[in-house]
Amino acid sequence: MKLLLWAAIAVFVIWLIRSNNASTTIGAGRPGKPGKAARQIEPMVQCAHCGVYVPVSETVTDTSGKVFCSDEHRLQHARS
Ligand SMILES: [Zn+2]
To answer: How many angstroms does the Cα of residue 58 sit away from the middle of ligand 1?
Structure first.
């Protein structure tokens, strides 16, 4: 009977450890969400030609370092 009690305790301890690991895994998954949120709050830059604010990843930069919303605006700004 004692053996059965110890077996039950062992199973309970294993279950506790496993549930702790599961919560740790969920906790480790959380930093991924702020990463996605950070991508959504991408810095916006103003186009040097039309003044429209564009996400940094969608901008076009010319040789002088000016930022444009599109390649077309970069060319138009270079012509003017
Ligand atoms: Zn523009």
So the answer is: 11
